[in-house]
Amino acid sequence: MKDRKIVFFDIDGTLWDINNYIPESTKEAIKKLRDNGHLAFINTGRSRSFVRNPKLFALGFDGIVSGCGTRVEYEGDVIFYYRLDPKLAEKTVRTVRDYDFRPILEGVNHLYMDYKDFPEGDLYGDKLREEMGEDLWTIEDHWADWEISKMSCATPPEQVENCYEAVKEDFDFMIHSPTVVEMVPKGFDKGVGIKKVCELLDVPIENTFAIGDSTNDLEMLEAAGTSIAMGNGFDVVKEASDYVTTELENDGIKNALEHFGLI
What we know:
Elements: E1 6-9, H1 24-35, E2 39-43, H2 54-57, E3 63-66, E4 71-74, E5 77-81, H3 86-98, E6 102-107, E7 111-113, H4 123-132, E8 136-137, E9 148-154, H5 160-167, E10 171-177, E11 180-185, H6 190-201, E12 208-212, H7 218-223, E13 226-229, H8 235-239, E14 243-244, H9 252-259
Parallel strand pairs: 1-2, 1-12, 2-3, 7-8, 12-13, 13-14
Antiparallel strand pairs: 3-4, 4-5, 6-7, 6-9, 9-11, 10-11
Helix pairs in contact: 1-9
């Protein structure tokens, strides 16, 4: 096991594009990677309940790091899981609402969203309703009985700093845009997920590769033995990486794995 390499893949902008298109070269490259004896892991900020598209599982991953390192699966078994304390979750929901945040609570089996916060016609709300189906539950109907590890919020830009001051002892903010923040429990990020996998599988960190495109991949890229930025990635991600491959649709995954002799 110590001689194996583990490659961690972000999902959005790395494995597939905004339309969930996965290049054939990516499918073939991941199969060849595993045929060569290496391991392929998803590493995503999405909670496990939101990693469900059959197109992803068809790629044949050995494991999944989800929820910014709060859950790790290997060969179908859960080998690590962190659940947010229910009392802290309830307190935090009340707090963010005081600042007019509209929360989405993210768990293993369900996402929780109040439809009044994201009515029909709201692009993200519509996306969750379509993809989650009956596993999208309301916050109010399951009040304080949520099994979650993190949350995301639609935010009024002028309140982000004030809200962060109110919750910073327990959470880090990942600011995706002036109106969207991801709230991750202190001590967790996608890089922590890599370290946890290495610890549990007894693999040296220098045997790991991480491939990403966005700012929420920075901790993952920093933690890995070798960091790879997608050609379509943000400039800050490219600057922080050991290698920049081509764009997703231009065989980015295949070219990166070939460059490092993994396939």
